[in-house]
Amino acid sequence: MEPLENQNTEPKSFFQSNTAKMVMVGFLTLVLLIPLYFVQNLIDERTHRKSDMVDEVTELWGKDILFYGPILRVPFTSYETYNVTNPKTNVTTIQRKSTTDYAYFFPNTLANTSTVKKNESLKRGIFNHVVFTADMHFKGDFTYPNLAKLGLTEEQMQWDKAAIVVKTTNLKSIKSELKIQLNENNLSFEPQNSEKSDFSVLTTNTFNYKDFVKTDALKFKFSITYNGSNSIKFIPIGKSTKVGITSDWESPSFEGSFAASDTTKTVNQKGFHADWNILDINRTFTQQYVRTLPDLDDYLFGVKLIQTVDEYQQNERASKYGFLVIGLTFLLFFLIQSISKINIHIFQYSMIGLALIMFYTLLISITEHSSFSLAYAIAGSSVVGLITLYSVSILKNKKFPMFIGIALTVLYTFIYVIIQLEDYALLVGSIGLFAILAGVMYFSRKIDWHK
Questions:
Q1: Residues 251, 130: Cα–Cα separation, whole Å
Q2: Pick from 101, 91, 222, 84: which is nearest to 156 by CA?
Q3: In whole angstroms, how far apart are CA 102 and each of 151, 288, 296?
């Protein structure tokens, strides 16, 4: 007769084994990637909507500011000689045809000081795009042109038809009357038709260069106020170019072919200040040209006023950790199930997984009406509280649900810290995942996986 113990022991089916349960939980985790994918698509859709709003606002308010000037433009007369043969007498004569071209001269010194103030008043629906107003002041001087370098003579120059040229962007975003002082004389700028490019052209009325010049230098001074967004950049056309920008924008990105001076550059929560000092030996173009101005876009420098991480970027980064959150939460419940011998149905796993997905939809919707930090706190505490209360009914006690609540709180806090970090996100994330792996290995070391 067999012992009573053996008579009451029935072999477990495969579907009751830990292996089968692990396979089903793993399959459910993969299935939940489908709604997580739709959440990421939702974030992309909202991001595109905001991008459309940004394009609309910048079109109305003002786009990037690029500045190329001022430039002294002087027309000159050039002559073309050619031979003309009389067919009747077969006599050849030399004739000369005159044409008018332009010579362009860059400043000897060019100094700019700009003050940039952000403007947060523009809002379209739930979206808010930060733009700025820039007050820019220029001064410098032109020395007497070296005509010999251009192969020109004094007789060719039409000094009485000189003008000052400025190439810039966003004419409609200029908010001040634009006049330039040349020594003791004042001239107004007017727009003119230009070639298709990123720049528009402003020129003064013509003036007699020699009447304006008291000494060898023609000094200039002018100011301009812009509405703009995204960036401010200059081309260093002065033989000596100095630029200083001060702003209350706390997250600048210094860009272009020339670096700001490290000795005077400051960036903090109140804003930034940066200076550039560029000499003619620092770039490879000359100070004077004939007929056409060169394309000097490769020499642009300045500052981009950026938002380091906006709300949708933060939501996108949070959603990328969705698979990790679902996987670790399911693993936590599976370990508790294996240790406590309490059966958790696959339907209950599904409800927990959907609650985790709901975190991201809550996060997106609340972020659009508040800050990301507040939205994260509300969405995270709501989901953690919901899963903790649901765990009480599943696990029939309070010890394990309390542990689950604490673990999920730590997990969401850990992910929030990673999202906020920039330079150390990978390092902190790697250390955190290593600690999680070590904890899982420790708590699962005594589980009999063969049952």
A1: 12
A2: 101
A3: 13, 11, 18
Nearest alpha-carbon partner for 451 in 14, 8, 4, 6:
14
What does the alpha-carbon distance between residue 277 and residue 298 come to, in Å, rounded to a whole number?
Answer: 17
Instruction: Give residue 196's pLDDT.
Output: 55
Would you call 84 exposed, middle or buried from its count of C-beta atoms within 10 A (0-12, 13-18, 19+)?
exposed
- Please identify every stretch of the chain with a pLDDT value under 70, giving residue numbers as ranges: 1-22, 25-26, 50-58, 81-86, 88-96, 120-129, 193-198, 214, 307-310, 422-427, 429, 440, 443-451
Q: Which two tokens stand for residue 175?
A: 């908010």
Q: Which two tokens stand for residue 46?
A: 């909202």
Instruction: Return the pLDDT at 194.
Output: 58
pLDDT score recorded for residue 122: 58
14 DSSP 8-state letter: G
pTM: 0.65
Any idea what the Cα angle at residue 104 is, between residues 98 and 106, rounded to 5°? 165
Q: Are 196 and 203 in contact (CB under 8 A)?
A: no
User: Would you give the distance in Å from CA 194 to the centre of its chain?
Assistant: 29
Are 322 and 39 contacting, i.e. CB atoms less than 8 angstroms apart?
yes
Distance, in Å, from the CA atom of 184 to the CA atom of 129, rounded to the nearest integer, reads 42
**What secondary structure does DSSP assign to 368-400, as a single string?**
TTS-HHHHHHHHHHHHHHHHHHHHHHHHSSSHH
CB 81 within 8 A of CB 95: yes
Q: Which of 24, 16, 35, 14 is nearest to 330 (CA)?
A: 24
**Of residues 69, 70, 63, the one with CA closest to residue 170:** 63
Length of the chain: 451
Nearest in space to 302 (alpha carbons), one of 274, 342, 338, 330: 274
Axis crossing angle, helix 33-61 with helix 18-31, rounded to the nearest 10: 20
Nearest-angstrom CA–CA distance, 398 and 387: 13
